Amino acid sequence: MTQLLKRFIDRTHIAYFSMEIAIHPEMRTYSGGLGVLAGDTARSCADLQIPVVFVTLISRAGYFRQEIAADGQQVEHPDWWDPAQFCKPLDAMVALRIEQRAVWVRPWLYVHTSPHGDTIPILLLDSDLEQNLPEDRELTHYLYSDGEKYRLKQELILGLGGMRLLQALGFRLHTYHLNEGHAAFLTLDLLNRYRFPEEDVRPGEPLYDLAEVRERCVFTTHTPVEAGQDRFSYELFASMADDLVDIDELRQIAGSTQLSMTQLALNLSGYTNGVARRHAETTRHMFPGYRVHAITNGVHVGLWTHAAFAKLYSETWPNWHHEPEILVRAMQLPNDRLWDCHLTAKTELVGHVHALTGIRLERDIATLGFARRMTGYKRPLLLFSDVERVAAIAARHPLQIVLAGKAHPRDEEGKAAIRRLVQLTQQLRGRITCVFLPNYDMRLAQVMVSGVDVWLNTPLPPMEASGTSGMKAALNGVLNLSVLDGWWAEACVEGVNGWAIGTEDDAAAADNHANLLYARLEQVVLPLYYSDTNRWRDMMRQSIGNIGYYFNSQRMMRRYASEAYLR
Ligand SMILES: *Cc1c(COP(=O)(O)O)cnc(C)c1O
């Protein structure tokens, strides 16, 4: 272990900080899309041998395990996992001063190994140490738990604890990547590192060399709404971290009335990225005056391609894992093999649904999938705006629907949507086979994005920064039917690789999206599925080819490496 760690320390130049990282299905260190993106980033860094160390919290109790009661109520359970099964504790510890007392933090090391045997390190920060007060031992247990105090302390541990541990271990780094504003406190450590010597600072002049800090920071923002961004009052911040930095100067960097983690990150990063072209534009409107780049998100092809398709791709292009651009040649894939792979994935979904719910899906019936974080702007109920109309469509063109998704424990609207969806599955019984599967996670996502025929996405524009599950679906020849927001606005070729609901500039017409969705399903998608198998398979190839070759995390990380890290 020490030998391996020494090798990581010697070769690594970049640190990537993220509140959540989806590393392994049994490690509950993630909640959803942000963590999955961070995990796919790590996997691609290993594949491409980009010398990055990843830093996150250990989240021993995870986000939560979702149980769905008979009435549709979401029940949340702690989702404990055992770090010792996957990670090694490192012999290093640092203390932070939080709320006028020492909070000790220790890292665990997880080593991710790529299919070619290349490795990257992931450090998971843990405060559950006997040196700490019982209250502080829980600070790294619950991911996105309630309470702004708890959240602030977690972000101090991630940013400052992470920086100090990297230094204590001997890492020499030139770039720090902040995945979302949660990680922005790492800049406070850099501010202190690049503080001008006391005697050189005249009254009224800055205390910190901001240019030096900016040269080292890269920021990826994911939140296109003000309300979604972390903010703390300066009183709370000062009561938690009293003598960390000069508060007056911090106000100039992070916002005069409240400490905005997004503003802190924006002002101290030399390179800021939005996660899709459209999202970069939205971010420029929200924060005028900042240069916001657009490296669109991607997904890891090795993780998200079903084994049957992966085998077919490997036979056709032996190096496709490393160079997924080759998927652009998907027109080479033979019709019957393609369909066999799809049926293999669909059969697995059918088996999975039966095991979980006792309900039998039919393999020959068009199957629609929708799985998201259950929250207002994703509009999980849009498909059911007019239940009778859905039932009437299904009466002419048989239809099955598979649903899943967690709502944040405090998101009452999201939890109400789950209750309504579960009731609808019961109400529609006999007319449409519709199921809601509990506890959406990486494993379930893999089964769903490969096993359905059509992947539905209905966000309210411009709220979906990128979205990534549709990219996973495309790798498996599943066709996207989606509102033109986030990544789909730049990927969709209507009727060729999937279908749009509405047009790109009709956010005002969002009220009409349900009608447009019904019309597409009834007039285009379902008739094609049942009557023109060849065209459907052509579209599957287009989906694999002209979506898979581009919207993957190899391309994303090659761009980050050349445009953001090697600036
Ligand atoms: C990919 C993924 C997400 C993100 O999906 P979106 O398309 O961004 O909504 C969320 N949760 C899990 C478990 C995933 O695998």
From TrEMBL:
Pfam families, sorted: Phosphorylase
Record keywords, A-Z: Carbohydrate metabolism, Glycosyltransferase, Pyridoxal phosphate, Transferase
GO biological process, one term: carbohydrate metabolic process
Catalytic activity: [(1->4)-alpha-D-glucosyl](n) + phosphate = [(1->4)-alpha-D-glucosyl](n-1) + alpha-D-glucose 1-phosphate
Keyword Transferase: yes
SUPFAM superfamilies: UDP-Glycosyltransferase/glycogen phosphorylase (SSF53756)
EC primary class: transferase
Molecular function in Gene Ontology: glycogen phosphorylase activity; pyridoxal phosphate binding
Cofactor: pyridoxal 5'-phosphate
Family listed: Belongs to the glycogen phosphorylase family.
The protein's name in its UniProt record: glycogen phosphorylase
